[in-house]
Specification:
Largest sheet: 10 strands, antiparallel
Strand content: 25-35%
Helix content: 10-25%
Number of domains: 2
Order of helices and strands: EEEEEHEEHHEEEEEEEHHHE
Number of helices: 6
Length: 302
C-alpha cells in the first residue's frame, strides 16, 4: 500500500484506487502505455467498523443504509464488530449454502429442541419454554413474535427478524439485557457452498460481543472433539447435515415452518422485482433517508 494506491510486488506496477495503472518501473520511460492497463475496482465505504464494497453497475449505486439500533447508543455503549460468525454455531466459515442459515432465523422452535433439550441448556432456562409463535411479513423483513409464559408468572415477548437482504436481527438468546435488539449480523455468501457472518453490536465492555459465542461442555466449537459435536450439536451441525445445498423438493413443510414459507415468498418477490427492472426492497438512493428501524428485542412483561 502506498499513498497513491497499491503497488504490485512482482514487477512494481502501481495502481490507483480506481484501478488505473500509474507506473510500470520495468518498462522504458516508466511505462509510456501504463494508462492502457486497468484493474477491476469497486468503491468502498467504512461504516460500523466494517468495510463495504459496492460491486454493481456504477449508475445504480444505492446509499449504504444506516440502522437505528446501531446509530442510537445508550449510556456507556459503543460499537464492536466481529467476524467469527456469531450465531452460526460453528467455525467462522460455514460449509453450506447461506440460505440454510438465513431460514433458521424464522424458526424459533429449534431453540427449544436443539438449544435447550438435545444439547442441554445452551442459552438460559427461559429459552426451553415452548413459545406461542406468530409471523408477520414486513416491507424489509419477516418478523417472528414468540411469547413464553415463564414459571414465575411473567411473560417473555421475544421479537426477531430476518431482514433484507441477508440480515440477522436476532436479540440475544442469553437475555443479558432486555429491550431493543443489541446487534445486527450480515450473512455473507462466499459462494454457493459456504458463508460467513459479520456482526456489529452495542456493547459496554471490550470483547463483549465475542463472548456471545456459545460454549458447549465448556468449549468453543473449534475446541470440541467429533464425539462432542455429536453429543452437543449446534446450529452448524443441523445446517450442514442437510447437504451443502438443501433440496427443497424433498422437504415436508408443516405448520411450524410457516415463517420459512413466508421468507421464501418475500425473497421471490425481490427476484421478481429485479426481473422486471424494479429495485428490491431496502434499496434507497436518498442520502437523507432515516435509519432503518426494526422492532426486534427481548421484552419482559409482568
Amino acid at each position: 500500500m502506498e499513498a497513491a494506491g497499491i503497488r504490485c510486488c512482482y514487477h512494481g506496477w502501481l495502481f490507483d484506487v480506481q484501478g488505473h495503472c500509474l507506473e510500470q518501473p520495468c518498462e522504458p520511460g516508466g511505462g509510456k502505455r501504463a494508462d492502457k492497463a486497468r484493474q477491476p475496482w469497486y468503491p468502498v465505504q467504512e461504516l460500523y467498523g466494517l468495510i463495504w464494497a459496492y460491486m454493481g453497475p456504477p449508475g445504480k449505486k444505492p446509499v449504504l443504509p444506516r440502522y437505528e439500533c446501531l446509530d442510537v447508543l445508550d449510556v456507556g455503549e459503543f460499537l464492536e464488530a466481529d467476524d467469527s460468525s456469531i450465531g452460526g454455531g460453528g467455525p467462522p466459515i460455514i460449509p453450506c449454502n447461506w440460505l440454510q442459515h438465513y431460514e433458521n432465523l424464522v424458526d424459533p422452535f429449534h431453540v427449544v429442541i436443539l438449544h435447550a433439550t438435545f444439547s442441554g441448556t445452551q442459552f438460559v432456562p427461559q429459552m426451553a419454554v415452548m413459545p406461542e409463535v406468530t409471523w408477520e411479513t414486513q416491507p424489509q423483513s419477516v418478523r417472528t413474535i414468540s411469547i413464553r409464559k415463564l414459571p414465575d408468572g411473567k411473560t417473555l415477548r421475544r421479537i426477531s427478524e430476518a431482514g433484507l437482504p441477508t440480515l440477522r436481527v436476532i436479540p440475544s438468546p442469553k437475555l443479558g439485557r432486555f429491550g431493543r435488539v443489541e446487534s445486527l449480523g450480515w450473512v455473507l455468501p462466499m459462494d454457493d457452498h459456504s458463508f460467513r457472518i459479520y456482526v456489529v453490536g452495542r456493547v459496554r465492555e471490550k470483547g463483549e460481543l465475542s463472548r456471545m459465542r456459545t460454549r458447549m461442555n465448556g468449549k468453543l466449537w473449534e475446541e470440541m472433539s467429533e464425539a462432542e459435536h455429536q453429543q452437543y450439536p449446534n446450529d452448524v451441525e443441523a445446517m450442514v447435515s442437510q447437504g451443502v445445498i438443501a433440496k427443497h423438493s424433498e422437504e415436508r413443510l408443516v405448520s411450524s415452518d410457516r415463517g420459512i414459507a413466508m421468507l421464501r415468498r418475500l425473497l421471490r418477490e425481490q427476484l421478481q422485482a429485479l426481473e422486471e427492472g424494479r429495485d428490491p426492497a431496502g434499496v434507497s438512493f436518498d442520502h437523507n433517508a432515516a435509519p432503518v428501524q426494526f422492532t426486534a428485542g427481548n421484552f419482559l412483561l409482568d
